[in-house]
Design brief:
Layout (H helix, E strand, L loop, with lengths): L2 H15 L21 E8 L1 H4 L2 E2 L2 E3 L1 H4 L8 E3 L5 H6 L27 E9 L10 E6 L8 E2 L1 H12 L5 E7 L12 H7 L5 H14 L2 H4 L8 E9 L2 H4 L8 H16 L6 E4 L19 H6 L11 E4 L23 H19 L2
Parallel strand pairs: 1-8, 1-9, 5-8, 9-10, 10-11
Antiparallel strand pairs: 2-7, 3-4, 5-6
Length: 359
């Protein structure tokens, strides 16, 4: 895409979204806190798969999977919803899913645990628009949307266990259908390749300020406490992956984005973890150098010749793909709504984050 064409495209996007935008906080925002004894803050950002569509109670119907088309695809407690995974915990050795229940001895009926030591704050971005309703509270599978969960759920389990003596806040800044090349376009991308700074890039920091500048109001139990921004997690890329214009640029846009995020948060070494865009029938799992992977996946896995910044780790998410016949749905670009896929993405992001924190 020519630079002038991109400028027009982004200007159109900005104009179309202006009516939905939340108030911009930057001009009046406080400086970022950096209290080592404060709440540990993680920013989770991206598009719809960071929004999250992991099914909590509804899963795939085994009868439908047998080819019976006169039965519903999804049923309560069906395959690869979180409930089924807790009931059949032995079939999912990668995590103790029964431990997520209030009463593991009654997995079919037990309520889900929430964690008061790990909290979530999110302006609902499932519609792809700015200015959504605030969702916040103790982390649980229903905290984010009331029905589904995203990578924050698995991420919060690992990080919460890691910070045994600290409190954790996850700020989710995620919106459906948004591209790095336009919507999340950062200042360095503009400097190097033209265009305009994207409104969703700005919103990452505006929304973070919105909660952190008044932390004691948003979470009264933390009144008087400081905070420390500890890490950033990124799961995004589908819109870039399917764009002939945006996909080749991702390898250059991603390191610019990382550098700008770190500059904005005032930490050039801020730990940064990335979950690749391996959903939606991307293809079979490969070993490096990922010859058969898409341009965006290669960029996310640093297989394009562009140098990987320090304190950055990526995960190949293709191993987390669940076949449609064994999943709650056939919506490939949303991981077929598999609770296992979303949980493992979050868990793996957290595992990589812990590795960086311990370096």
């Amino acid at each position: 895409m020519e630079k002038n064409t991109r400028r027009r495209s982004i200007a159109t996007t900005l104009a179309g979204l202006a009516f939905a935008a939340a108030p911009i906080a930057s001009a009046e925002s406080k400086a970022w806190d950096n209290d080592p004894d404060g709440v540990k803050v993680f920013i989770l950002a991206g598009q719809s798969n960071m929004v999250g569509y992991g099914k909590t109670e509804d899963g795939g119907n085994p009868e439908w999977e047998k080819g019976k088309k006169d039965v519903p695809k999804e049923i309560k407690g069906g395959v690869r919803c979180l409930r089924e995974m807790a009931i059949n915990d032995a079939n999912y050795p990668e995590y103790d899913y029964a431990s997520l229940l209030e009463d593991p001895s009654q997995p079919q009926t037990s309520a889900w645990k929430t964690r008061s030591d790990v909290k979530l704050w999110w302006r609902h971005g499932g519609s792809g628009k700015l200015g959504g309703q605030i969702r916040k509270g103790d982390l649980g599978p229903l905290t984010s949307t009331g029905n589904w969960f995203g990578p924050e759920y698995g991420f919060g389990q690992i990080i919460g266990d890691y910070y045994k003596d600290d409190e954790v806040l996850i700020i989710k800044t995620a919106w459906g259908g948004r591209a790095l090349a336009s919507d999340f376009r950062s200042p360095s991308m503009v400097k190097h390749r033209g265009g305009e700074v994207g409104p969703f890039y700005k919103a990452i920091f505006d929304y973070s300020h919105e909660v952190l500048d008044k932390l004691g109001e948003e979470f009264p139990e933390w009144k008087g406490k400081g905070y420390q921004i500890v890490g950033f997690a990124w799961h995004q890329g589908f819109n870039d992956r399917v764009s002939k214009e945006f996909a080749p640029e991702y390898k250059d846009n991603l390191p610019d984005f990382i550098a700008d995020v770190r500059t904005e948060f005032g930490n050039p070494d801020l730990p940064f973890v990335i979950a690749s865009t391996g959903m939606g029938n991307a293809g079979p799992v490969e070993e490096p150098p990922y010859e058969g992977y898409t341009a965006v996946e290669k960029a996310q896995l640093w297989a394009t010749g562009v140098g990987k910044p320090a304190k950055v780790l990526s995960i190949d998410t293709r191993p987390f793909w669940s076949d449609p016949k064994d999943s709650p749905s056939t919506m490939g670009h949303h991981w077929n709504h598999s609770a296992e896929s979303y949980f493992l993405i979050g868990k793996s992001l957290a595992d990589r984050m812990v590795t960086l924190l311990e370096e």
